[in-house]
């Protein structure tokens, strides 16, 4: 059977998702390799397809593509995306990961013959890999023990060993893995487990499925709307790691039992209790601290606003881009760092689907942020890894994009949601597509609920969601050119099938097509000024003269907000100014806007009364 690499699987999946030809140059840019390497990969892919009675079509100047029926595409996708990956050829990087997992999930030395058998390679290959692994372990404060006539065993600080296990497991997770694991946790009728490629054939795999089963039962009893899937994933993995290490008689700290009623309400405690009871393990306090968070008790207090300002200034200087001119970046990045650094549950190894794309496509920005963060953030160096840097980079990438907001097809976008992330995705898509409206962003945890509530025309997701009643497109975490082309074709298809979806949410637009952006802008200005003059008449002498120019600007911006569905939404009770407004004037304002085919909400009406005398 022909073996294929992880990169070749990614190329094949992309070809299966595209109906149009893709050039070798485009594939090379996406995979961050040379065109020659892609051509070698395509030769291997042809052999793999030939074994399945399929062929890879190609034509000079056009590219490569697959001619398949829908059922054939689904069949091949399923084979490639299943985590078993029986034909995946392990390069040395992958073998070192699997070697380290094998040697850390046991308390018994393993011989080179047994390791060679488990990884299905020769003994010479294993010995060569062990030399390379030893150097990596030394750099991380661990040791590869070589025990005469017994074999090999990894020893070192328990926290470092557990972090390495977690790092390897999380690194090998794919979007498909995340989706299937979350689906198992949330679909209570499912009982099967899930196999992780990195942990295949180890005690960790057995324990993980027990943890998934117990977590599934716990989630039935609680509200999952506030859960973060990355933290949920970390919790599951850490309980499994702690269980395996304790079964092998390795503890992370003291033998003091946990006896804190406050902690016993936490989901992480309830999960640990269920799993540890199953394996008859004691509930040690330090084991719970490990499962709950990477704690940094000795970290000095830090001014997060000053940190944010310094970060923006210094990154701007390194990449020669004036990020400091973007006030929204300061706001969003401050909010992100405040939550990230003050959060009770801090995990070093957090799954980040954007990490690889950002490192490959924006290496200069990534390196600049990493250098500044290492100098500016105090005391939490363990927390600063590629995932941490990538989430910060998302906020900076927002400033690179120019927002456009003319859409018509309703879309629900399923991704890793968070401040800055959704803005970046919105800008990436709307930069080239001017006729979609993103109705909502959802995470893999609440995707089905949001889709049901919003009833979109199209679902775009970084995860492969099954059972969609509407059009569905799977994209990369950072949308590629091919992703945008797929969205464009699908939007065109939806609009052609359902002309009513083609009406943009711009109230000023006539039944025919808008002639130009210039005409639209002119119409918007005239309408806003007409409304301003009518409001002057309505308010008469009540409008403060000193605020008249400010009122004009306010009305123009208000009309713009209404047209683009961005009206104020006031929280809490009404303002004092709003309380002074009579109900009759409010009704007149509503009628005035209705005459111009605009619907104004109460918060916008209340804001107008701020310009009234007294």
UniProtKB/TrEMBL annotation:
Residues in PRD domain copies: 299-406, 519-614
The protein's name in its UniProt record: Transcription antiterminator
Any GO BP annotation: phosphoenolpyruvate-dependent sugar phosphotransferase system
Species of provenance: Enterococcus dongliensis
Gene3D superfamilies: 3.40.50.2300, PRD domain, Winged helix-like DNA-binding domain superfamily/Winged helix DNA-binding domain
GO MF term set: protein-N(PI)-phosphohistidine-sugar phosphotransferase activity
Alphabetic keyword roster: Activator, Repeat, Transcription, Transcription regulation, Transferase
Keyword rRNA-binding included in the entry's annotation: no
PANTHER family: CRYPTIC BETA-GLUCOSIDE BGL OPERON ANTITERMINATOR, TRANSCRIPTIONAL REGULATOR MTLR
Classification via Pfam families: HTH_11 (PF08279), Mga (PF05043), PRD (PF00874)
Residues of the PTS EIIB type-2 domain: 409-499
């Amino acid at each position: 059977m022909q073996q294929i690499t992880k990169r070749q699987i990614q190329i094949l999946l992309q070809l299966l998702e595209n109906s149009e030809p893709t050039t070798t140059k485009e594939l090379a840019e996406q995979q961050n390799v040379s065109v020659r390497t892609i051509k070698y990969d395509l030769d291997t892919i042809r052999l793999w397809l030939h074994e399945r009675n399929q062929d890879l079509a190609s034509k000079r100047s056009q590219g490569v593509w697959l001619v398949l029926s829908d059922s054939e595409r689904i069949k091949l996708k399923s084979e490639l995306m299943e985590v078993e990956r029986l034909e995946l050829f392990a390069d040395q990087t992958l073998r070192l990961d699997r070697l380290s997992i094998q040697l850390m999930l046991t308390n018994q030395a393993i011989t080179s013959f047994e390791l060679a058998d488990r990884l299905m390679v020769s003994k010479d290959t294993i010995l060569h890999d062990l030399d390379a692994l030893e150097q990596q372990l030394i750099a991380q404060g661990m040791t590869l023990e070589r025990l005469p006539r017994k074999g090999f065993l990894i020893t070192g600080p328990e926290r470092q060993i557990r972090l390495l296990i977690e790092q390897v497991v999380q690194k090998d997770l794919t979007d498909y893995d995340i989706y299937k694991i979350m689906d198992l946790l949330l679909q209570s009728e499912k009982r099967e487990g899930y196999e992780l490629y990195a942990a295949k054939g180890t005690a960790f795999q057995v324990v993980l499925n027990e943890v998934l089963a117990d977590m599934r039962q716990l989630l039935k009893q609680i509200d999952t709307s506030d859960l973060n899937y990355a933290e949920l994933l970390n919790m599951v993995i850490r309980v499994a790691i702690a269980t395996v290490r304790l079964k092998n008689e390795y503890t992370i700290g003291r033998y003091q039992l946990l006896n804190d009623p406050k902690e016993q309400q936490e989901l992480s405690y309830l999960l640990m209790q269920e799993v540890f009871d199953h394996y008859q393990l004691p509930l040690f306090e330090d084991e719970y601290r490990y499962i709950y968070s990477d704690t940094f008790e000795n970290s000095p207090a830090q001014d997060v606003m000053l940190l944010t300002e310094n970060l923006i200034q210094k990154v701007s200087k390194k990449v020669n881009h004036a990020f400091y001119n973007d006030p929204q970046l300061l706001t969003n990045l401050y909010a992100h760092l405040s939550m990230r650094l003050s959060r009770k549950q801090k995990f070093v190894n957090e799954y980040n689907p954007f990490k690889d794309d950002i490192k490959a496509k924006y290496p200069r920005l990534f390196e600049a942020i990493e250098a500044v963060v290492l100098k500016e953030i105090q005391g939490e160096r363990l927390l600063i890894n590629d995932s941490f840097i990538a989430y910060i980079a998302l906020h900076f990438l927002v400033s690179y994009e120019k927002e456009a907001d003319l859409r018509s097809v309703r879309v629900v976008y399923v991704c890793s949601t968070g401040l800055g992330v959704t803005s970046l995705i919105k800008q990436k898509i709307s930069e080239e597509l001017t006729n979609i409206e993103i109705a909502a962003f959802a995470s893999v945890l609440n995707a089905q609920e949001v889709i049901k509530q919003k009833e979109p025309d199209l679902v775009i997701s970084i995860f492969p969601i099954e059972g969609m009643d509407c059009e569905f497109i799977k994209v990369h975490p950072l949308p590629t050119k091919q992703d945008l082309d797929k969205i464009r074709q699908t939007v065109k298809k939806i609009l052609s099938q359902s002309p009513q979806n083609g009406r943009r949410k711009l109230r000023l637009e006539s039944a025919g097509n808008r002639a130009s952006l210039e005409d639209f802008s002119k119409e918007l200005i005239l309408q806003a000024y007409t409304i301003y003059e009518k409001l002057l008449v309505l308010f008469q002498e009540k409008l403060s003269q000193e605020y008249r120019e400010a009122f004009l600007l306010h009305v123009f911006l208000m009309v713009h907000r209404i047209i683009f569905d961005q009206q104020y939404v006031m929280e809490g009770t009404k303002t004092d100014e709003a309380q002074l407004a009579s109900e009759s004037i409010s009704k007149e304002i509503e009628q005035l806007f209705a005459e111009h085919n605009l619907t104004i909400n109460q918060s916008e009406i209340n804001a107008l009364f701020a310009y009234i005398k007294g």
